[in-house]
Design a protein that fits this description.
Elements: H1 3-16, H2 27-39, H3 43-53, H4 60-93, E1 98-100, H5 103-106, E2 121-124, H6 130-139, E3 143-148, E4 152-157, E5 160-165, H7 173-179, E6 186-188, E7 194-197, H8 199-214, H9 222-232, H10 238-247, H11 251-266, H12 272-284, H13 290-301, H14 304-312, H15 316-322, H16 325-328, H17 333-345, H18 350-361, H19 365-377
Parallel strand pairs: 1-7, 2-5
Antiparallel strand pairs: 1-2, 3-4, 4-5, 6-7
């Protein structure tokens, strides 16, 4: 079995409790597996299933590494759970409506919550409630820089991060015309200020967020696993989710994602498209690499020069996300473009800009063409 095949066999067995197809590993195989899984923030699942099934190489070094990986993720999970509990308690006590997003909600559907860790906790509230929410949370010990980002405010409690969203829009019109009405797809808990997305909208939000990251360099394996978990729970009505995807041009994207889920977790056969998508996703890791992002941007914009221009002169909808003042004063758009240009060439961003330009210069045409093929086949080349 290849490293990729072993990875998905182990991930599936960790969730289902089945026996892995492999019964032993060399230390080299182990290192390759952990390296690939770490790229996608899933090393703890691989380490745990190897330990439970006695498959890992019998070496003190390997045992120590497995223990460190598992304890590290358990700590992250406990930190995030504490942040979530503290935030929910503060919002409930002050009657501030809220919705748990992404990992904060879906972790409860995994066999154990620590299996679905994330780098932060995402919670949605109304924009008018941001100021009072930040106030009550800082009273509970959270700290914040008070900077309002394009769709959230960041708060910290110890080593954990809370992203308090007032919007889940992505800066892409086709998706945002549904996401901007997120509260219309929510249901209130009994005698509570806690709301929950309808099951279908929750799944759609995962898909739309995947598509956003996918077109910008990659989304990693984790959201594929999330959708697989939802499917295992018969969590949503397939036709309703497909209808939402169809409304914003994501139906082909979602169909391909489902095909890859079936290949990875249900042993279905690859197609040329799914092979190309697999390579793109696996190479990009959890957040997408600079190389993937540049190749994806070049593929979307049809040339390197147009991609460079697109990085400075963003679409108006995306500029509003970065510069919220444009909501109130749209005539400032030309000045915000100038501001963004200076930000990109400022001393603070010099290294980042140089890295980006070098990646653009050295980008492999074969990789760009492969991504262009993926985007066209998945019908997301216009995003």
């Amino acid at each position: 079995m290849s490293t990729v095949e072993m990875l998905f066999d182990l991930l599936r067995c960790e969730i289902t409790g089945e026996k892995p197809k492999i019964n032993s590993l060399t230390e080299n195989d182990f290192n390759n597996l952990i390296s690939l899984a770490s790229l996608h923030s899933l090393a703890h699942l691989v380490a745990d299933v190897l330990k439970k099934n006695g498959i890992a190489p019998d070496s003190d070094t390997v045992k120590a590494r497995i223990q460190k990986i598992i304890l590290s993720e358990a700590y992250i999970s406990a930190t995030n759970e504490n942040i979530c509990n503290q935030t929910e308690s503060a919002l409930k006590d002050n009657n501030i409506p809220y919705i748990l997003l992404k990992g904060a909600f879906i972790s409860t559907l995994y066999p154990e919550r620590w299996m679905r860790t994330s780098c932060d906790i995402d919670i949605l509230i109304h924009e008018k409630d941001i100021e009072p929410a930040v106030f009550v949370l800082t009273e509970k010990g959270f700290t914040t820089d008070n900077e309002k980002h394009f769709h959230d405010v960041h708060l910290r409690l110890g080593e954990g991060l809370l992203e308090l969203h007032f919007s889940i829009c992505e800066g892409q019109k086709n998706i945002d015309r549904i996401l901007e009405n997120a509260w219309d797809y929510s249901v209130k808990d009994k005698n509570n200020c806690k709301y929950q997305f309808t099951n279908e909208f929750f799944a759609f939000h995962i898909i739309s967020h995947m598509a956003h990251h996918f077109t910008n360099g990659g989304c990693g394996i984790k959201p594929f696993m999330d959708l697989w978990i939802l499917k295992r729970h018969n969590f949503y009505n397939e036709d309703d989710v497909r209808s939402l995807c169809d409304k914003c041009g994501l139906l082909k994207f979602y169909t391909t994602v489902c095909q890859l889920i079936d290949i990875w977790f249900n042993d279905k056969e690859h197609t040329d498209l799914t092979k190309a998508v697999e390579s793109f996703v696996l190479n990009g890791g959890t957040r997408g690499t600079t190389s993937n992002m540049v190749a994806a941007g070049t593929a979307r914009n049809k040339s390197r020069f147009k991609f460079i221009l697109s990085m400075v002169f963003l679409k108006k909808s995306k500029m509003i996300n970065y510069y919220p003042v444009l909501n109130k004063y749209p005539f400032l758009l030309p000045f915000m473009y100038i501001k963004r240009l200076f930000e990109k060439i400022s001393r603070k961003n010099t290294l980042q800009t140089e890295t980006m330009l070098n990646s653009i210069k050295n980008q492999n045409n074969e990789k760009i063409n492969s991504i262009a093929y993926i985007f066209k086949e998945m019908q997301i080349d216009g995003m």
